[in-house]
Amino acid sequence: MKKDVKLYNMILPTFMLLTMHPLMWIFSLTGNFVIDSVVLLLVSLIVFKKLDGKFYKKNILKVWGLGFLADFIGVGYLLLLDDIGWKYIMEFEESDSFIYNLMMDMHLVTFGQEYATVGSNLFLLSGILLAAVAIFLLDYFIVFKKTDMTKKQKMISALMFAVLTAPYTYFIPEESFDWYFALFRLGGV
After folding, report:
1. Which of 44, 95, 103, 154 could covalently link to 52 via disulfide, CB atoms 3.0 to 4.6 Å apart?
2. What distance lies between CA 128 and its chain's CA centroid?
3. CA distances (Å), 94 to each of 34, 91, 97, 106, 123, in order?
4. Which of 57-66, 108-117, 121-130, 166-175 has the lowest mean pLDDT?
5. DSSP class of 111
6. Distance in angstroms (rounded) separating the CA atoms of residues 141 and 176
7. Does residue 72 fall inside a structural domain?
């Protein structure tokens, strides 16, 4: 009997975790499956010099599921740092201090509300980079472990996934989804 695979990945803005609306999840799951499929077929073309259906079938669900896990690692990191900053640092800082403003930027950007400052964008970028590193490690050590690939081919393949499927959508502000929230009368986050 196969182990259950948890599914999470690239099309996953941080605030989406809070909405949990079924259609948003369907969009995310489908979009990620398509993106992961394209990248896996590209890897097949580069590594094996052909489209290898057997390679694709053997690895697509692992790549897809572990990609979601990596994205949740990035989101978890963002939420954890925001929570620590909000609970333990904010109360000791003056409202006009650099640290206070940085913590406020982190809090606002975590919930899709503020993307204007360098600090908020660097904070999001750190979550994306963490997710990309997790994608690389999971793909290299789990997905491509028992393949016919050389060490160099595994490295290139895992790196391709890390760069091409990193969760860049963390940068999408919540306002971009106002139409969606209005359509389903969700009222935003």
Report:
1. 44
2. 6
3. 47, 8, 5, 16, 21
4. 108-117
5. T
6. 36
7. yes
pLDDT band at 183 (very low <50, low <70, confident <90, very high): confident
On whether residue 141 sits in a domain, the answer given is yes
Residue 174 belongs to a domain: yes
Most confident of 86-95, 102-111, 117-126, 137-146: 137-146
Do 142 and 13 touch, CB atoms closer than 8 A?
no
**How many domains does the chain contain in total?**
1
Q: Across residues 65-73, what is the average pLDDT?
A: 93
pLDDT at residue 189, as a whole number:
47
The identity of residue 170, as a single letter, is: Y
Q: What is the pTM assigned to this prediction?
A: 0.80
The CA–CA distances, whole Å, from 103 to 62, 78, 89, 131 equal: 36, 12, 8, 21
SS in 3 state form for 70-101? HHHHHHHHHHHHHHHHHHHHHHHCCCCCHHHH
Burial (Cβ within 10 Å: 0-12, 13-18, ≥19) of residue 150: exposed
Q: Which domain holds residue 55?
A: 16-183
- Tell me how far apart the alpha carbons of residues 182 and 177 are, in angstroms, rounded to a whole number: 9
In three-state secondary structure terms, 3 is: coil
